[in-house]
């Protein structure tokens, strides 16, 4: 599970850097200031959770099953939270109305919150003191 989480974390980080650079350079001229701030929020949270997954992968206090659960919740959360923000912020460029994704963003946020909560819960539940 450690290798999978590190790979996933690296992928999320890789994509966040590309999207961040794309937003700072290519999108700067075509998005409103508000849309750009939203896009940057999606990038920032994606990077936060890339780093979070790296941390989770290295925590000896978590079981492999715990890590898998946290990894799945974080992945769903990143796709729903950051993904919906990216689509909503750039919908004017694509010509596709993604407003129906508005309620998806907080659901993604709930998945991210749950992944952090479970990390704390699982670590407190362990009897071994590492």
Summed up, what is this model?
It is a multi-pass membrane protein. With 130 residues, this protein is mostly helical.
Question: What's the arrangement of secondary structure elements?
Answer:
Layout (H helix, E strand, L loop, with lengths): L1 H24 L7 H26 L5 H26 L1 H4 L9 H22 L5
Helix pairs in contact: 1-2, 2-3, 3-5
InterPro entries: DUF423
Protein name: DUF423 domain-containing protein
Pfam family, one: DUF423
Q: What is the overall silhouette? A: elongated
The main β sheet shows up as: none
* Tally of DSSP helical segments: 5
- How many β-strand runs? 0
- How much strand content do the residues show? under 5%
Q: Order of SSEs, N→C?
A: HHHHH
How many domain regions? Answer: 1
Detail the poorly predicted runs: none
Helix content: over 70%
Mean residue pLDDT:
92
| Structural category | mainly alpha
State the separation between the terminal residues, measured CA to CA.
Answer: 19 Å
Rounded to an integer in angstroms, the radius of gyration calculated over CA atoms is: 16 Å
Keywords: Membrane, Transmembrane, Transmembrane helix
Pfam family, one: DUF423
Transmembrane segments: 47-63, 70-88, 100-122
Organism: Paenimyroides viscosum
């Amino acid at each position: 599970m450690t290798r999978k989480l590190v790979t996933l974390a690296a992928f999320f980080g890789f994509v966040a850097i590309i999207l961040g650079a794309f937003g700072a350079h290519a999108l700067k001229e075509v998005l409103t200031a508000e849309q750009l701030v939203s896009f940057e929020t999606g990038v920032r949270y994606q990077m936060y959770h890339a780093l979070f997954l790296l941390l989770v992968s290295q925590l000896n206090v978590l079981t492999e099953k715990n890590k898998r659960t946290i990894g799945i919740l974080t992945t769903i959360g990143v796709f729903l939270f950051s993904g919906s923000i990216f689509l909503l912020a750039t919908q004017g460029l694509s010509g596709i109305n993604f407003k129906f994704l508005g309620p998806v963003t907080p659901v993604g946020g709930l998945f991210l919150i749950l992944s952090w909560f479970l990390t704390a819960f699982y670590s407190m539940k362990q009897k071994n003191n590492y």
